[in-house]
Write a structure and sequence with these properties.
The chain is α/β, with parallel strands linked by helices and 460 residues long. Helix content is 44%, strand content 13%. The strands form 3 sheets. The protein has a 6-stranded parallel beta sheet with strand order 3-2-1-4-5-6, sandwiched between helices. It has a 6-stranded parallel beta sheet with strand order 11-10-9-12-13-14. The protein has a two-stranded parallel sheet with strand order 7-8. α14 links the parallel β9 and β10. Bound molecules: uridine-5'-diphosphate-xylopyranose. The site of uridine-5'-diphosphate-xylopyranose has 20 residues, from α10.
Length: 460
């Protein structure tokens, strides 16, 4: 099909590249001309394994291209994905400004005979699908008034606006977004139009049937859940809120383990063996970060409160996550006492491995807290070399040896694989004080102890 993807961020670029990979003609519409130029030159503006290969493949085959010109991207698109950002506003609401801009840029291209499908893939506040419909119909009826003095609400506005909106939330994890797109656990489609749902099912058929050329062994067909717009929009928020709650839950149990002598790794394994609980997302540590969890939980909380409900559990999920980050500071104080003047090395900056994304990264919270306590912070990350306004609060090391040299403590913040295979004896030699705090319970504890270093984990 002829597809337009509005927004070339993490979600839009992966969506466009994967849809081209399964045989569609895709135009990415990105107003940031620098980003569009980079993508057209085959350069990804972010780190995402496998996406680089699909970008090059799509450009080479001619099935994927990018533009800043709405007319070029929208005029003959059959399906239009909206992958724009919905960042949090001051009031804790998800901003829908970009969504409004996208809807109004689409409106003039909806007059043809063929129904166009507008797919909201970004995480949008519940009710956004109907809101987009209203925006477009109002815009078109306004345009009609200018041209034909048509009374508002007349059938002309309906015929002028030949489109349907489908909510198709993304469940992409950074660092494995391509895998999550091509081999999803499920596809969720919400709309009041059955024909629109069927058209999107046709678009996704190669993924549903798992019959595109891929190296992945054939797996079962992908379940497709069709529902209303509101339910589809809520599924996205509820999924992220649950995943974050699961992590905050195990981090709460970790706090209890530390006080009564349990080992959180054993406890997590023990509860995870119950199929109803499952072992994933039970890794205790410094807590969750990223562009979605906090944003989506705060937005869902705002919606709940707006409609008269106090979301106690959502509040707790946020609070326990803040406690998890503060725990690492407490452990440093327990071991080093006064932090003023102490040299602390942070291993990892990105919010999780295999990405360069710093959004709501625990590392930034630690840098701020340690700087404010007068500690000297040095940081090292395999891909991140710039932390924006935090650059003034920390010194960058170019490797682990430099990070450890003269340090009073090293803190594992992001469990990059390379951090788990170190020459701990050499590290012990160059540190000023032999303290390793494992903020992800990912380091080889016995090896570290054998090297004469002190090991402090989370919940164990
Ligand atoms: C998440 C959701 O998983 C994804 O479905 C949604 O579309 C976007 O948000 P992402 O934020 O990319 O994906 O990363 P994810 O792998 O979910 O990890 C989120 C955070 O939780 C990271 O900071 C990670 O370090 C942390 N985490 C994850 C834990 O602390 N413990 C765990 O067991 C798992």
């Amino acid at each position: 099909m002829r597809v337009c993807v509005i927004g070339a961020g993490y979600v839009g670029t992966v969506t466009g590249a994967c849809l081209a990979h399964i045989g569609n003609d895709v135009i990415g519409l990105e107003l940031d001309s620098a980003k569009t130029a980079k993508l057209s030159a085959g350069e990804l503006p972010f780190v995402e394994p496998d996406c680089q290969e699909l970008l090059e493949q799509g450009l080479a085959s001619g099935r994927l291209r990018f533009t800043t010109v709405p007319d070029e991207a929208l005029s003959d698109a059959e399906v239009i994905f909206v992958c724009v950002g919905t960042p949090l506003t001051e009031s804790g609401e998800a901003s829908t400004d970009a969504l409004r801009e996208a809807a109004l840029s689409i409106a003039p291209h909806l007059r043809g005979d063929n129904e166009k499908i507008i797919i909201t893939k970004s995480t949008v506040p519940v009710g956004s699908g109907d809101w987009v419909t209203m925006l477009i119909e109002d815009d078109l009826s306004g345009r009609n008034d200018q041209n034909k003095q048509v009374k508002s609400g007349s059938p002309d506005t309906k015929s002028a606006a030949n489109f349907s909106v489908v909510s198709n939330p993304e469940f992409l994890r950074e660092g494995c977004a391509v895998e999550d797109f091509l081999y999803p656990d499920r596809i969720v489609l919400g709309s009041s139009s059955a024909t629109a749902i069927n058209k999107v099912i046709d678009l996704y058929r190669p993924i549903i049937e798992q019959d595109f050329t891929s190296s992945c062994p054939a797996i079962a067909k992908i379940p497709v859940l069709t529902t209303t717009l509101e339910s589809a929009e809520l599924i996205k928020y509820a999924a992220n809120a649950f995943l974050a709650t699961k992590i905050s839950f195990i981090n709460e149990i970790a706090q209890i383990c530390e006080r009564v002598g349990g080992d959180i790794e054993q406890v997590a394994e023990g509860i995870g063996l119950d199929r109803r609980i499952g072992s994933s997302f039970l890794n205790a540590g410094i807590g969750w970060g990223g562009s979605c969890f906090r944003k989506d939980i705060v937005a869902l909380k705002h919606t709940a409160e707006e409609y008269g409900y106090t979301p106690t559990m959502l509040d707790a999920t946020l609070e326990v996550n803040d406690i998890a980050r503060a725990t690492v500071i407490r452990k440093l104080q327990d071991e080093l006492k006064i932090l003023k003047g102490k040299r602390i090395g942070l291993m990892g900056l990105s919010f999780k491995p295999l990405t360069d994304d710093l959004r709501d990264a625990p590392s930034l919270t630690l840098i701020n807290r340690l700087h404010n306590s007068g500690a000297r912070v040095t940081v090292f990350d395999p891909v991140v070399t710039d932390i924006g306004e935090y650059n003034d609060l920390a010194r960058f090391a170019s490797n682990m040896e430099e990070l450890a040299s003269g340090a009073d403590a090293l803190v594992l913040v992001t469990e990059w694989p390379e951090f788990c295979v170190q020459d701990w004896k050499q590290i012990a030699k160059v540190m000023r004080h032999p303290l390793i705090i494992d903020g992800r319970n990912a380091l080889p504890r016995q090896e570290i102890l054998d090297a004469g270093l002190q090991y402090v984990g989370i919940g164990r």
